[in-house]
Please model this.
Amino acid sequence: MTSGARDRVESVALPVVGVAVVLAAFEIAPRVGVLPRSSFPPFSEIFATLTDLVTTAALWEAVLDTLDAWARALVIATVIAVPLGLAIGSNQVGALLSRLTIDFLRPIPSVALIPILVLIYGTRPSLKVALGIFGATFPLLFQAMYGVADVDPVAKDTARAFGMGWWTRLRRIVLPSCAPYLATGLRISASVALILVVTGEYIVGVPGLGAEVLVAYSSGAFDRMYALIVVAGVLGLVVNLGFHAVERRVLAWHPSHRVDEGGAG
Amino acid sequence: MTRSWLGRLVLQLVLPVALVALWWQTSENSTSFFYPPLSSIVEKLQEDWLFEQVGSDLMPSLGRFTVGYLIAAAAGIALGTLIGLAPRVRRAGQPVIEFLRSIPPPLLLPFVLVVVGIGNASKITLIAVGSVWPVLLNTIDGVRGVDPQMLDMARSFGVGRRTQITRVILPAASPKIAVGMRTSLSVALILMVISEMQASTNGLGFKVLSAQRSFDSAGTYAGVIVIGVVGLVVNLGFLVAEGWIMRWHRGARGLLEDTDRRPARGLRTRLRDLATAPPADARAGETTGVM
Model:
């Protein structure tokens, strides 16, 4: 039992120690000149700015702007990618027809589209939504394709032998069996969409969290800049952990999650 | 497996060819500023990128990309092995790593600009810092997942720690590491472009953004196409290299599908496999996001 107790203490203490060490490093490094003090304030100063920042309406407006575009991008990407992925993945001809097109489009760094999007949208919010859609579509598309290809053929044939129509088969066989793939795709896409929305804001200056960082950077308010970057990191963490938690909850019935020990992914 | 590989290849070519033809056709008489004729984009492509700006912009971009990516890969594998082998360090470091990798990497750009400056060093730093996470996390995962029996065996044969790492642990973790390196590749490309969009005087990202700023829409499209081709070539190159380096592994443990089981010998075999086999990253890429 003692080893169990020690384990429990360690599982709480070690992460705390880890965080403390890193924070201390970021406090000391600028003070002793390892990081330039003028461009990287000690952590305590960044933290003070951060606590001021979270009481301002401007920050929350920016966060809402960002989340709004993120949610739109994610929903639209899902509506495009899931049906398309299921359709392509469920027959060999579809998979072959689309293979090269997808393989060509996927490695295009999504941010390369920014200049074209600026030509089209200027600095309107549609720019970041479009960027988010492009990035978020691919992970979901692939997960849907592989999910549907992985459906147990016996289950499919059995359903067909029992005279189920395609809609019933989709609802009762295909979707439940693809669910873990789709959930994974959704989680990746959610992170990717957030990154791209913030990137669009930062590079182009579309209002939102990224644009706030840009303004802080170009006006030399570095403590504010770092505080905003921390906020963006927290947002990314919340999105990732949130989707993880929902995934585990909603898919608790699925074999792939029943044995899940919760090892961090 | 019903069709010959030639038949499958032809089937794969139909849609891309049709799409390009459609683009050519619909844009030919377009006077819209946002939708320039494909013919003028191709013209611009030849004018700018064959080969006038190859030396002045493409090469610097690729150079920074290569250096930054290699630093990320080396650091990720080294740190990942250390962390993966030390359970306490891993538990202590996990929250910090989770947080740092949650920061949208492009937001690290202002950080490197103010701390490192605006030269090549800052661009390389951005690429390295931003793309290290997938390699790092996958290496940790891979090292943790090494079959304990293999380690016990090595130990009982009196194999030293260093040899254990180079001969047992790293080879066993290498498929995971390869997955991480492939994800990092995409991130590094994105950061290469991003780093050149601000405070830069050359490079692909710089060129494409300045074309947009001077309202040269054909030039903008041409630049984006060049970046797309670079992405494609770099990814293909990675797959070929991976297939060659990992050829000892393919099918060695019976984990792979039929199409993958035959050893990929030359470039041609490898490319043919690419055209017929399912991409390997179906579920593998899931530990970390690909942008």
